[in-house]
Each structure stands twice: as C-alpha cells, then as structure tokens.
Structure to design on (339 residues):
C-alpha cells in the first residue's frame, strides 16, 4: 500500500515535470524531438551594430519575413548594439546553441572555420561586382555550407563595402602606417597583413576600439565608412585613407543546434527568407555608406584618396603567398569570378 502511494506520487511528479518542460519548449525551444511543421520558436539574433545600421536592418527584414512566412510561429528577436556580446564570444555561444542566430563579419568567423579566411585576404577582390559574383556563385555557396562542420549553418552574405585605414595622425601614403599600433579584428590574416605593412597589430573586440583610440593605446584602426562613422571612431581618429585593402563580407548564420530542430519546410523558409533579405540589406548599405561619407566630410574628417594602389598591393602580396596553397581551390574560383 505504502509502496503504491509512493509510486503514484513519483508518477505525478514525473508528469508535472514533463508538463513544465514541454510548457517551456513551446515558448522558446522545440516541442520534444518531433520536427513538426507547427513547431513554435522564439530565437535570438546577435548583432554588433546599432539599430539603424544596414546589417541590423537586414537582420530585421530577415526576421520579419520568417515571422510572416511561418504565420508567427518562428519569431526572431534582433539584439543590436552588441547587447549579447562581442563577435568572438557570440560565435562561441552560437556553436554551443546558447544563442541561435547572429550576423558577423567573415574575418572573426575565420578563426572558427579556416575557409572563411580567404575572404579577408587583402586586395583579393577587384570591386564589389567581383566579390558578389564569387559569393553568389557555387564556391560562395559551398563556403557557407562548410560552416556545418563548425556547428553553424551559413544562411546568406550581406554587404560590408571596403575597409580602409584611419589614424589619430595624418595618413598621406602607405609609409605613414609604418610603426603604428593598429587595431585589427581578431583574426590571424589581419595580423599578417599589418605586419606586412610594417606596423604592429593589436587584435581587439570592436566595442573597445573607441576608448583605445581616444586614450592612445592604439594609433589607428581600419574599417568601412559606415562603421567608422557609426562607432564615432572618426571623432578620435580624424584621418582616413581610402586604400580599400579588404572587402570582407558579412555573414548571417544560425546555430546548427537550432537548425537541426527545424522541419524541412521550416528550413526552406528560413534559408529563403535570409536570401530574400539580401537585396534589402544591400540597398540599405548603399544608402548608409553615402550618408556616412557625407557626414564624415561635414564633420571635418580628412579623407585621402589613393591614386595608385599598386604599392599597397605589393606590400601585402606576401600574405597572399603565405595562404596560396591552403586556399588554392577558392582562389581559383575567385579568379574565375573576375572573368
Ligand atoms: C565591421 C563589421 C563588424 C565588426 C567590425 C570590426 O565592419 O560589420 O561585424 O567585425 O567591423 O571591425 O570588428
């Protein structure tokens, strides 16, 4: 008798426990292991930039399309301004499945999946047309797919323009970089590039760059017009030289843990929504880039054109040579995309 009572008590505890678990599941996780088409999720997307920045606008467009196309079943909440952490830490969280989605730059991603390094090799793309032809071709898609072995699933590329150097002191030519302490994104290729330019590389999370420039811990950094502007770095490093050394794109991705929970139908919806948000993001990018340039000029930033890029390309050629074998296949595809 006593044993039976105990059994009943244990059973009801078990039932209550499972109800609790499935209750949570329908709010923010999977409904058991079944990949039902009706599963509901509320997922987080980590973004380092502020709400009005073009990548954030792309993220929001993507979230909106997913919400519409799943009739509100899959809700993606965009957390801008680095609220969920700096890029490297966020990627680690995405690998663990603790953060479901993020938009990051391909440069820090290369530390988690070597293939992505090819995208930050200096002067590897002639212009945006060349870059996008590669990204949207077979090799670009394969590259996104290769993230699966790094516990992520690549969804789409976003625009990030071209990166150039800026410093606290005038930058009139490549020689002015010599000996400077230059902040780079946390990736090995970037460090090699700075060394090849005769400067010293300081890898550092994006969110720390403003005060490092302000206090003189570093002399210089590098980025596209939109980031240079929106981060306010231009207020403490007023000299920008348009050397356009990299065209490292942005990547929208989902944790493999989250991806594997989805039904095939939902996978298609998410992938397509990501691809459909690209045109919107690229338009927003073009507009923001122009506005940023105008505002930078109005704020009195000195913008120096580079008439001949050859000395810059020559200086960093050793970096490409160093990685030529490793990236042979993709470098061939990049050459093809030029034609
Ligand atoms: C920006 C990029 C960010 C971040 C940043 C950086 O252009 O959009 O994701 O990588 O550069 O320099 O850290």
């Amino acid at each position: 008798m006593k044993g039976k009572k105990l059994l009943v008590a244990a059973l009801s505890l078990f039932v209550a426990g499972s109800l609790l678990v499935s209750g949570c599941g329908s709010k923010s996780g999977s409904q058991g292991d079944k990949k039902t088409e009706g599963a509901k999720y509320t997922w987080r997307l980590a973004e380092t930039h502020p709400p009005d920045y073009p990548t954030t606008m792309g993220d929001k467009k993507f979230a909106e399309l997913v919400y519409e196309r799943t009739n509100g079943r899959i809700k993606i909440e965009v957390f801008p301004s680095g609220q969920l952490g700096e890029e490297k830490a966020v990627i680690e969280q995405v690998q663990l499945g603790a953060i479901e989605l993020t938009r990051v730059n391909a440069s820090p991603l290369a530390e988690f999946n070597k293939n992505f390094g090819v995208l930050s090799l200096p002067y590897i793309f002639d212009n945006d047309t060349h870059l996008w032809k590669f990204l949207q071709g077979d090799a670009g898609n394969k590259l996104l797919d290769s993230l699966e072995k790094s516990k992520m699933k690549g969804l789409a590329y976003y625009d990030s323009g071209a990166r150039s150097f800026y410093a606290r002191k005038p930058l009139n030519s490549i020689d002015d970089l010599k000996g400077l302490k230059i902040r780079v994104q946390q990736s090995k290729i970037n460090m090699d590039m700075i060394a090849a330019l005769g400067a010293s590389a300081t890898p550092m999370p994006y969110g720390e760059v403003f005060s490092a420039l302000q206090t003189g811990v570093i002399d210089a950094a590098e980025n596209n017009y939109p980031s240079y502007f929106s981060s306010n770095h231009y207020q403490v490093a007023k000299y920008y030289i348009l050397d356009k050394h990299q065209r490292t794109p942005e990547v929208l991705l989902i944790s493999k843990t989250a991806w594997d929970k989805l039904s095939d139908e939902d996978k298609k919806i998410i992938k397509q929504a990501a691809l459909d948000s690209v045109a919107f993001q690229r338009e927003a990018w073009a507009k923001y880039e122009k506005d940023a340039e105008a505002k930078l000029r109005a704020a009195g930033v000195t913008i120096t054109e580079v008439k001949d890029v050859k000395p810059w390309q020559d200086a960093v050629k050793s970096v490409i040579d160093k990685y030529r074998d490793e990236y042979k296949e993709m470098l061939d595809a990049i050459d093809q995309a030029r034609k």
Observations:
- Residues 1-33 have pLDDT under 50 and may be disordered.
- The radius of gyration is 23 Å.
- Residues 163-247+292-338 form a domain with the D-Maltodextrin-Binding Protein; domain 2 fold (CATH 3.40.190.170).
- Residues 48, 55, 87, 104-105, 160, 185, 206, 223-224, 227, 250 surround beta-D-galactopyranuronic acid (CB under 6 Å).
